[in-house]
Request: fold
Amino acid sequence: MSDATDNTSPRVIAVANQKGGVGKTTTAINLAAAFAERGQNTLLLDLDPQGNASTGLGVLPESRDLSTYDVLMGEAPLERAMQMTGIPGLWLCPANSDLSSADMALYSNQNRTSMLRDALQQPLLGDSALDYIFIDCPPSLSLLTINALVAADTVLVPLQSEFFALEGLSQLMLTIREIRQTANPDLRIEGILLTMYDQRNNLSQQVESDARDNLGALVLNTMIPRNVRLSEAPSFAMPVLNYDTASRGAVAYRALARELLIKHQKLKPAETSQ
Ligand code: ADP
Ligand code: MG
Reply:
């Protein structure tokens, strides 16, 4: 969506992998929170009809009158649908079950793959200027995910450190390539993130070395360990950074934020020791 000469539009990062349970939502919530903690005004847009990111940030279904669905269908501006969370600098555009009918509703629309991009390109008024938008994608390569990839500057791919992890990746890579050839030539890969990594487990190590051998520099240095605090935090309606700030999960997502913000030249390596 943005380009290098345009400082005003937020950088849009889609968190995508058509496999379920690989850590997309956990990454979207905690990385968005870690970016906000670093002073970046950040929006998490929940694009999964299950609404796990919305629940995980404590937004109850009754407080989702305006949702991603309305934004996607051009029925409400993003500015009205997004809401503040309890975390300074972090906003949420919530999802509700309306989104499960979006695929059908989009299908008959001529602009069915670019609806989200158009919605995100509307300028935000007031003081809600955003630095980053994270999109939490559903576990499919449906029109919803396609909309996210068309709207995004980059795609961040969580990869669960387990057997068959790399198998599903080729389909996603193919989809990314097709979108580059058509609707979004500038789409880049933010990185491949190894999640639920267990360093005592040979299988995790094997998946890591396979991924680094095959995908090279696309694989991010930071890996997210398997950490029970990460799975507990959503039921307390907060990111792990707030739920257990010194947990290994929190430390890892802060390290990931640092790695990406340095890459985006928003942080200097010298600032990273805190
Ligand atoms: P997705 O959005 O890809 O479906 P989730 O982020 O919802 O995946 O994660 C699937 C499940 O695994 C959730 O119960 C989540 O709490 C748990 N989980 C995710 N990442 C970790 C981790 N690093 N350590 C432990 N549990 C995790
Ligand atoms: Mg999810």
Notes: The beta strands are 11-15, 42-46, 83-84, 90-93, 132-136, 154-160, 188-195.
